Amino acid sequence: MSDHLTIVNHPLVQHKLTLMREKSTSTAVFRQLLREISHLLAYEVTRDLPMTTTNIDTPLVEMDAPTLKGKKLALISILRAGNGLLDGVMDLIPSARVGFVGLYRDEETLKPVQYYYKVPGEMGSRVVIAVDPMLATGNSSAAAIDLLKESGATDIRFLCLLASPEGVALMKERHPDVPIITAALDERLNELGYILPGLGDAGDRMFGTK
Ligand code: URA
């Protein structure tokens, strides 16, 4: 992947996203929509995976048939909202290895601090897809990518539902080699770091917390 930002402008993605933005959408429906939309986003983020062929026997003949090449993918959920996207991506890539990155923001330094980190081995030989629904300030996303690179990852893609121009700019500055795939690029952040028009707090909406 080379283009830094891909907006998945598919009618189904855009329709489902509108339903997710609406504040009266229930937790159960929000979750279901997120799962459906993540299938469509997963399709897009894996569009250029390397392929090879394998020799198989159909009931009629032998053939060299296409298969994915290389080590199993690594899906990395940036906690906690990443888990909502992760489920749907795993539906499409069930054999992927899965890792988790937990970061919180230190209220004094405002810098992301790691509280959990567990990723698959051999990260340098895998296509790595980091998932987090909201690319807002970009601080935690960029810090998570730093950690994945420290673990040896070289082919990383960042998959989100909504991105802000501020978050995209920060990621481009810190990680120009990491393409971003998103359903929409929204207008801006508000003073609290929420994406506008956005959909609110993605974690709260998918887990029913407040
Ligand atoms: N995280 C969210 O869940 N929502 C936003 O709007 C920004 C960050």
UniProtKB/TrEMBL annotation:
Q: Which InterPro entries match?
A: PRTase-like (IPR029057), PRTase_dom (IPR000836), Upp_B (IPR034332), UPRT (IPR005765), UPRTase/APRTase (IPR050054)
Note how its activity is modulated. Answer: Allosterically activated by GTP.
From the UniProt record, which GO molecular function terms apply? Answer: GTP binding; magnesium ion binding; uracil phosphoribosyltransferase activity
Q: What does this protein do, in the record's words?
A: Catalyzes the conversion of uracil and 5-phospho-alpha-D-ribose 1-diphosphate (PRPP) to UMP and diphosphate.
Its GO biological process annotations read: UMP salvage; uracil salvage
Q: Source species, please? A: Pontivivens marinum
Question: What is the official name of this protein in its record?
Answer: Uracil phosphoribosyltransferase
> In which family does this protein belong, per the annotation?
Belongs to the UPRTase family.
Q: What class of enzyme is it?
A: transferase
Q: Give the lineage.
A: Bacteria, Pseudomonadati, Pseudomonadota, Alphaproteobacteria, Rhodobacterales
